[in-house]
């Protein structure tokens, strides 16, 4: 799953842009927050259930029922076996710390059950911030933080490897941290300070570096992902100072990346999974080897080799599901030992699309294996989207996180690209995902009527109709057609039963609904651009006209296409600004609007989208993030929120705009039910009235703002979109980039 992120604000705005519009200083921005009593809000997560890549799961070895999970863009979680729920641990990370929502690794201290450590950093690119290490003495309820001088990559290739963070088995005060580009770091004060230490291998541009750290007795082993195929890719230290290559490493594994490792303390054997790429994509070959740490003897114990064959001379799984042949390509990912049963190990395949990924279990040290997938019964009734429009769900994909409960040999969990499955009997599997939400949210609608108070457009899992906010949508992903990522979602203001959606799909890229989003039908036809460049869509207030825009992944933008027959035919609108997001007037069916950020011009149509002409100019141009919104029930009452230049309003259909001085940054805007006695809808925004970027509400037409979230509920980058409920005063829905849909209500 990919994450988005904001750039840091450098200046308040260009002088030229400010001079082109009227500025009304209703009061100083600082007074806005100070003078508005902050309402008390309760925040909850709209339940979908997972939907993102669970990259690691770690049971605590000395506390029954305690486990931790990490995700690539949605933070870390703690499992409570008694409540059977995950608790998010990083919702307090704010706007400026958005890059820390990607968790590179987790570490626990076997000798001190309340201690837990996280290494955070989503991207290792030059434009991303440096990583950080969080340390907790109360299982993640509170954290102390150390900022690093290096970058980490919780959403980079290889994010399912690890763990890259480890408490030294000799000394609980000592921690090791493997990095992608900067070698090995060490802390001797429980993560408060870090220094680089000597390591035998040199990082390369591949960005893998140290892929795993694992304790084996009193020694520490490190996997190396930047080997050229001839050098060692597994190292160890026995004294905590000197590192050496592990002798006699398997020749077949030399050209591969060590993905995961697990140590069986009963047999003193280290199991290592390998793949020819870091994953989660791109793997086509892999193997499993074990090392007898006392003798130094290596043994290959690969359950099934890519291509449908088994390791030499051994009896393996029946592989009833295998297609065989060279098309059955994959690597190996997860590895976990059973702490209660010597020689019992579970490993996973990864990137196995021909026969679908599987788990293999051995009870005799890898001499024979059983495919847990062969006998698996999957129950996804709690999260129906996991069928992805098919008759039944897949066992999984992107399986690089596998764990066995040290207190229950038949409690096994594994992460996928969309959920976390668990079993208590090695046969019946169901999502063990309550409380864990990692959706990257793109669009939100809160309808004024009907059963659902929320319809969402999501990354990777399409569009969902939320009959309830406390349960995963019973219809799963919107079907007919099923989308991967949604790109557009719109509702006819005067005919709310009519909804349209767009997105990336294999069997069509646009659909319409006449029952408020409960059921869908594909457009009878679609423009050729729709398959590779589907963008936002708008419908006028009575649903008689559609405007669909197209933006290619490489940034190329195209004119809008128009339909007046519910998507049966389409025609280009040459005068529409390329790539702009269309907006329908909520009261006048003949009016559409579009904001051209390249030129800072508001365009409007008064002939139902046939032609567009420029109106106000001199608006902020080049702003990387903006939203044009319309106040409900009012024709021509337009609001333009901009990242660098704040909030602007037009009451004459875009002929002129006034800049409001009540905030200096506005990222996204929504209107909800008015407060009692108010003559204007409540306004919500993600923006900045002083120095804090947060969620705000105004009950007086944006004259004053009150913050409605708090420091414990920030969720990193939340600039994509928000929605407010037109039927419930005070309720606001916030789209996060990795923590699903958060919604708040006054208490």
Overview of the molecule:
This protein is mainly β. The protein folds into 2 domains: 15-43 and 439-746, YVTN repeat-like/Quinoprotein amine dehydrogenase (Methylamine Dehydrogenase, Chain H); 49-431, Methylamine Dehydrogenase, Chain H. Helices cover 1% and strands 36% of the residues. The strands form 14 sheets. It has a 5-stranded mixed beta sheet with strand order 1-50-49-48-47, with no helix packed on it. Strands 27-31-30-29-28 form a 5-stranded mixed beta sheet, with no helix packed on it. The protein is elongated. 57% of the residues are buried. Mean pLDDT is 92; it is low at 2-35 and 310-325.
Quick description:
The chain is 1% helix and 36% strand. The chain contains 2 helices and 57 strands. Strands 1-50-49-48-47 form a 5-stranded mixed beta sheet, with no helix packed on it.
- Poorly predicted residue ranges: 2-35, 310-325
Distance between the termini: 34 Å
Estimate the mean pLDDT confidence: 92
CATH fold-type name of the largest domain: Methylamine Dehydrogenase, Chain H
What order do the strands of the largest sheet run in, or round the barrel if closed?
A: 1-50-49-48-47
Give the strand tally. 57
Query: How is the biggest beta sheet arranged?
Result: 5 strands, mixed
Q: Radius of gyration from the CA trace?
A: 27 Å
Count of all domains: 2
- CATH architectural name of the largest domain: 7 Propeller
SS-based class: mainly beta
Shape type: elongated
Instruction: Name the CATH class of the largest domain.
Output: Mainly Beta
- The total of helices stands at 2
- Helicity range of the residues? under 10%
Which percent range describes the beta-strand content?
35-45%
CATH H-tier superfamily of the largest domain = YVTN repeat-like/Quinoprotein amine dehydrogenase
């Amino acid at each position: 799953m990919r994450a988005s992120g904001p750039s840091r604000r450098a200046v308040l705005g260009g002088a030229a842009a400010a001079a082109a519009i009227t500025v009304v200083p209703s009061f100083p921005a600082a007074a806005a927050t100070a003078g508005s009593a902050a309402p008390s809000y309760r925040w909850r997560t709209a339940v979908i259930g997972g939907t993102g890549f669970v990259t690691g799961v770690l049971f605590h070895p000395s506390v029954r029922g305690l486990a931790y999970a990490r995700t690539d863009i949605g933070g870390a979680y703690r499992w409570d076996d008694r409540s059977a729920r995950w608790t998010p641990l990083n919702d307090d990370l704010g706007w400026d710390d958005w890059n820390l929502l990607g968790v590179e690794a987790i570490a626990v201290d076997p000798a001190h059950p309340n201690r837990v450590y996280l290494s955070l950093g989503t991207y290792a690119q030059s434009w991303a911030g440096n990583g950080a290490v969080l340390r907790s003495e109360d299982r993640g309820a509170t954290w102390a933080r150390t900022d690093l001088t290096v970058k980490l990559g919780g959403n980079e290739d290889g994010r399912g490897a690890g763990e890259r963070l480890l408490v030294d088995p000799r000394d609980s005060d000592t921690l090791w941290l493997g990095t992608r580009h900067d070698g090995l770091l060490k802390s001797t004060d429980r993560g408060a300070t870090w220094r680089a230490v000597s390591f035998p291998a040199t990082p390369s541009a591949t960005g893998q570096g140290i892929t795993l750290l694992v304790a084996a007795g009193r020694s520490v082993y490190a996997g190396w992902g930047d080997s050229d195929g001839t050098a060692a890719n597994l190292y160890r230290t026995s004294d905590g100072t000197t590192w050496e290559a592990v002798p006699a490493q398997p020749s077949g594994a030399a050209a591969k990346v060590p993905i995961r490792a697990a140590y069986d303390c009963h047999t003193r054997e280290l199991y290592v999974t390998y793949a020819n790429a870091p994953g989660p994509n791109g793997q086509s070959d892999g193997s499993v080897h074990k090392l007898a740490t006392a003798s130094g003897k290596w043994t290959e114990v690969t359950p099934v080799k890519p291509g449908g064959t088994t390791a030499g001379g051994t009896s393996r799984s029946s592989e009833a599901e295998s297609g065989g042949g060279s098309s059955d390509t994959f690597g190996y990912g997860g590895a976990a030992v059973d702490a209660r049963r010597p020689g019992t190990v579970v490993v996973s395949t990864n990137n196995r699309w021909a026969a679908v990924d599987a788990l293999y279990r051995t009870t005799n040290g890898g001499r024979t294996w059983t495919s847990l997938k062969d006998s698996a019964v999957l129950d996804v009734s709690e999260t129906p989207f996991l069928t992805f429009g098919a008759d039944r769900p897949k066992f999984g994909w992107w399986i690089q996180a596998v764990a066995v409960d040290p207190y229950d040999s038949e409690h096994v969990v594994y992460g996928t690209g969309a959920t976390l499955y668990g079993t208590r009997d090695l046969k019946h599997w169901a999502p063990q995902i309550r409380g864990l939400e990692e959706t990257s949210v793109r669009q939100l609608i809160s309808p004024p009527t009907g059963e659902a108070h929320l319809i969402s457009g999501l990354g990777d899992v399409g569009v969902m109709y939320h009959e309830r906010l406390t349960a995963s949508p019973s219809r799963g992903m919107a079907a007919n057609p099923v989308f991967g990522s949604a790109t557009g979602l719109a509702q006819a203001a005067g005919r709310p039963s009519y909804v349209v959606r767009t997105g990336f799909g294999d069997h069509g890229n646009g659909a319409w609904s006449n029952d408020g989003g409960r059921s869908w039908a594909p457009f009878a036809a679609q423009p050729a651009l729709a398959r590779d460049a589907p963008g936002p869509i708008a419908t006028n207030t009575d649903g008689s006209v559609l405007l669909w825009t197209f933006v290619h992944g490489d940034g190329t933008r195209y004119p809008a296409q128009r339909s007046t027959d519910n998507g049966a035919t389409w025609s280009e609108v040459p005068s529409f600004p390329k790539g702009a997001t269309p907006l329908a007037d909520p009261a006048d069916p003949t009016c559409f609007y579009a904001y051209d950020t390249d030129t800072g011009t508001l365009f409007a149509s008064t002939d139902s989208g046939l032609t567009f002409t420029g109106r106000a100019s001199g608006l902020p141009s080049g702003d990387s993030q903006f939203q044009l919104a319309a106040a409900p029930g009012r024709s021509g009452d337009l609001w333009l929120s901009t990242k660098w230049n704040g909030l602007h309003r037009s009451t004459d259909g875009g002929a002129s705009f006034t800049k409001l001085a009540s905030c200096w940054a506005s990222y996204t805007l929504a209107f909800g039910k008015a407060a009692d006695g108010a003559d204007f809808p409540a306004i919500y925004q993600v923006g900045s009235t002083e120095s804090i970027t947060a969620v705000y509400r105004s009950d007086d037409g944006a004259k004053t703002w009150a913050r409605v979230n708090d420091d414990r509920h920030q969720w990193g980058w939340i600039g994509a979109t928000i929605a407010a409920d037109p039927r419930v005063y005070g309720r606001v829905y916030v789209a996060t980039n990795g923590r699903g849909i958060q919604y708040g209500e006054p208490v």
